[in-house]
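Researcher: Following up on the earlier apo prediction. This time include the ligand. It's magnesium ion, with the SMILES given after the sequence.
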Amino acid sequence: MSTSLIRWLWHALAAAILIALGAGLYVASKRVDYTWRWERIPQYLVSNEGDEVRAPFDAFVVVADDSKSVTLNAMRGSDTAAFDELASVAVGNGDLVFEGDVLGKKKGHLGFGTLMQGLWLTLEISALSLVFAMLLGVIVGLGRVSKNPAAADLAAFYVEVIRGTPLLVQIFIMYFFIGTVLKLSAFAAGIVALAVFTGAYIAEIVRAGIQAVPKGQTEAAQSLGFSGAQTMRHIILPQATRRILPPLAGQFINLIKDSSLVSVMALTDLTKAGREVVSSTFLPFEVWFTVAGMYLVLTGALSFGVRKLEKRFAARD
Amino acid sequence: MTAPLIQASGIEKRYPNGTLGLKKASLSVKAGEVVVIVGPSGSGKSTLLRTFNGLESITGGEIIVDGQRLDRRGADLRNLRKRVGMVFQQFNLFPHLTVLGNLTLAPCKVLGLSTAEAAERARKLLSKVGLADKAECYPAQLSGGQMQRVAIARALAMQPAVMLFDEPTSALDPEMVGEVLEVMKQLANEGMTMCVVTHEMGFARAVADRVIFMDAGDILCEEHPDVFFDAPPHERLKTFLRQVLK
Ligand SMILES: Nc1ncnc2c1ncn2[C@@H]1O[C@H](COP(=O)(O)OP(=O)(O)OP(=O)(O)O)[C@@H](O)[C@H]1O
Ligand SMILES: [Mg+2]
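Model: Understood. Below is the ligand-bound prediction.
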């Protein structure tokens, strides 16, 4: 048998095992009388719900014959208001409504459902904290390799403290203490907490990347009259970047996953959205599998992009 | 008579771990001279050479290079390094830059040349070392001999007053040694001031104005190559020469 055929058979075996696992899960759920309702999931991804229409003042209702428009006559004064082309009407002719009461729903328009909105917030938080974490990581990483003892001490202190405490604890501190003192919103506090956390790990990656560049490179640059900063910028960092890229990609993926912890601070990210949908639908399996799949799409896209980038760098030599 | 380009008086180098790399070594190199430094491994040849451009700081004595005392760090030292070219055993080319990039980066960033000026200078030097067609290659695409010739051209692009070579052919396959030595000979003939640490005794005999023998951090003797090789004045040198020339 050819080796490629044997390899193919092993791959087929892996696929068979995965399928068997899935089937096992299905059978197990049947045992506990779980009814799968996947059909209820799409509405939480893409919603077609129209916005509600509410009464602007206390008024009597006149519903048109076609049941699509509502006219309000104010209880006091002579204000009137008309609402046309409603998808559904929730009041009857002659009803008395008070300010803020629901009159009906407008025509639906395609929009993000709860889960997609959560995914969007996760993406937003991850992307913003990524930018700050990179900045912080490069600065602190340079501090770690600095000849200046003060810079080296401070950088080492930061890295040790952050890597030695759980992210969840840092998020609580950031939210309850710093968030209150500096009047940061939950969104800002979440970004700061994630950036500070990830920055410490990026700093270590940057330090390792810099230290992996052979000493001869620095000596050659100095012999040509480069200053320390010029050596770093033109010689060391460009070479370190290539070594830094793979571990950095892993750190970015961690950041996306870690961002699920900000759901403890009243931010409806993907994880929190999942919890909300579960509590209103009682479909834990479907919802959490969907949420996991959505995280996978994010992280998968990221590692795909980084692999492309790595190839571009590698093409040089 | 002009002052020597390099004047080292009684320099001592003690490494942080206590090793004495150099003990009271004195040497002077005049403009246009080619000085070859030989000696057994660990005798302090590299250390001596590296003190001449401040890659290694000294713990005693004094070095004056091109009229400037070499003791301060920072801008003074950088200005001095522009005047002293260095070629390493391991080439130390910048792998992320093309050959042309290797030759133009320092002239642009350190000397302030325009890109066009630096590129023109680089291309002239590349044809001088026989690598005009390799300008767009990356170092990893070159042979060892080609890399070392690029490294020499890179140092020359700064138009230094003196060139230091630390075993420039020791990392090369034997068939590539000749092409590098050829370039160095040509440089010497053009009147470049050179300090060369090497085990190539043929090169020393043919090109050197003086040959220096080091042992255990000391300069034991410095002689004209004819005397050095044909009538070695020192017992220790005789043993050394017997070993390397057999
Ligand atoms: N960074 C260092 N720290 C401590 N000791 C060192 C250091 N560099 C060199 N030495 C020591 O200083 C002495 C001189 O070393 P040097 O490299 O100058 O010798 P060399 O003559 O160039 O030898 P080789 O022919 O092997 O290159 C040796 O004993 C060496 O072990
Ligand atoms: Mg040496």
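Model: Chain A has two domains: 52-109, 114-316.
Researcher: Noted. I'll compare it with the apo version next.
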